[in-house]
Specification:
The chain has about 400 residues and is of the alpha/beta class. The protein has helices at about 5-10, 15-25, 50-60, 75-85, 100-115, 130-135, 155-165, 185-200, 260-275, 280-290, 295-315, 340-350, 380-390, and strands spanning about 35, 95-100, 120-125, 140-145, 170-175, 205, 235-240, 255, 320-325, 330-335, 355, 355-360, 370-375. Helix 5 crosses helix 9 (about 260-275), helix 11 (about 295-315) runs parallel beside helix 13 (about 380-390) and helix 12 packs across helix 13 (about 380-390). The longest helix is centred in the last third of the chain and has 23 residues, at about 295-315. Strand 3, helix 6 and strand 4 (about 140-145) form a beta-alpha-beta unit. The termini are far apart. Its EC number is 2.6.1.1.
């Protein structure tokens, strides 16, 4: 007997990464060990001192009980100090709430900002879990197409036109550095979006999960938190995840930075959806934010090295082009003669032993792109990527060299 399920669940896409990994079951191993570049996970272990503190906190009786709804004060204070340093702005623990991971941070933020029949402006290509969360909440995702020729940076002018046409938009979401493209948005682009949102009485939601992997900064990633009114009339919300910078995705700890009006409403979502974030991880991370600052800087340099290696590897392939590359990801354009992204990704998995995510997983208009998460691959694995691409798609190399 087929019993009914939620229409919102039925309308939500299936998880993309398991779908892509299912192709690997047909790989016979001819090209060597499977290279899995589907998921954004750090390609190195957590710091050993962090592991020791995690183990100690997990064995502490206090960690087994409920904690504060909006997070442990020590972690909120540590993260606020880190944000204040990074953005040269007066951020305090009162601005911070801790969540059970970055995805839940996004879902709860959207539940606070919009409801049934309302909409959120989401640049494409988009992070698929963002789109899935909006579907589950009954909130429309209005695509803001970003172009390869613009480096996949969102255009405030196009966004303004969409906001004029769709007055029910309650928020604009920017992900920087971006997932899936890796593109980092310049401060001036973020500032223009903030002004646009103020003009249209919409919230600006900045997902800065990967901000720890920006190149060595010459200045703050943006200046919004230094503006006096960002908490209220500025309407700015920042999302963050500890998963990448501290290599603890399994411990599910994220954060939301926002002003008091938003934070007051957020408490309802926090109490309903999580009650409290994992306490042992919060205890260990409260030390790690400052204690591992130098280690994080070293990992930033490591990721920059992998990004440069990936760019060099692909540059040797005629016709292949990374239209955007940075932080954790390369967004690779398929050459002329190659099949569309879905078929190409399947062939890469089955024939080349290389797992990548096809562009259509990231929204409309992405049929000629693949996302490769090089962050979880060492230099030897990155060097093997060109041979895998040519093995699975031998007739696709164009005659024109990569620019």
């Amino acid at each position: 007997m087929d019993l009914p399920l939620s229409p919102r669940i039925r309308a939500t896409d299936a998880p993309p990464i398991p779908a892509a990994r299912a192709w690997a079951a047909r790989y016979a191993g001819a090209a060597g060990p499977l290279l899995d570049l589907t998921q954004a996970v750090p390609g190195y272990p957590p710091h050993p001192d962090l592991l020791l503190r995690l183990a100690a906190a997990a064995g502490d009786r206090a960690s087994a009980g409920y904690g504060p709804i909006d997070g442990e004060p020590a972690l909120r204070e540590a993260l606020a100090a880190d944000i204040a340093r990074t953005y040269a702005a007066p951020v305090t623990a009162a601005d911070v709430a801790i969540t059970a991971g970055g995805n839940l941070a996004f879902t709860m933020a959207m539940a606070v900002l919009a409801g049934e029949g309302e909409a959120v402006l989401l640049p494409t290509p988009w992070y698929f879990n963002h789109r899935m969360a909006l579907s589950l909440l009954g909130i429309a995702a209005i695509p803001l197409p970003c172009r390869a020729e613009d480096g996949f940076l969102p255009d405030p002018g196009r966004a303004a036109a969409l906001l004029r046409e769709a007055p029910r938009v309650r928020a604009v979401v920017l992900v920087t550095p971006n997932n899936p493209t890796g593109a980092a948005y310049p401060p001036e682009v973020i500032a223009r979006f903030a002004a646009l949102c103020r003009d249209h009485r919409a919230w600006l939601v900045l997902d800065e999960t990967y901000r720890d992997f920006l190149p060595e900064p010459a200045g703050p990633p943006h200046g919004l938190f230094a503006e006096a009114g960002w908490r209220e009339e500025g309407g700015v919300v920042q999302l963050y995840s500890f998963s990448k910078a501290y290599c603890v995705p399994g411990h599910r700890v994220g954060a939301i930075l926002a002003g008091p009006a938003f934070r007051g409403a957020l408490m309802k979502a926090l109490d309903t959806m999580q009650i409290c974030a994992p306490r042992a991880a919060q205890a260990a991370l409260a030390w790690a934010v400052e204690g591992l600052r130098g280690w994080r800087a070293g990992n930033r340099a490591l990721m920059a090295e992998r990004a440069a290696a990936f760019r060099r590897a692909v540059a040797a392939l005629p016709g292949w082009r990374p239209d955007a590359l940075g932080a954790y990801f390369a967004y690779l354009r398929l050459p002329e003669g190659a099949p569309d992204a879905l078929e190409a990704a399947e062939r890469l998995a089955v024939e080349g032993g290389l797992l990548a995510l096809p562009g259509p997983f990231f929204g409309p208009g992405q049929e000629r792109h693949l996302r490769l998460a090089f962050a979880n691959a060492g230099l030897e694995a990155i060097a093997a990527v060109p041979a895998r691409l040519l093995r699975a798609l031998p007739g696709s190399a164009a005659s024109d060299p990569v620019a």
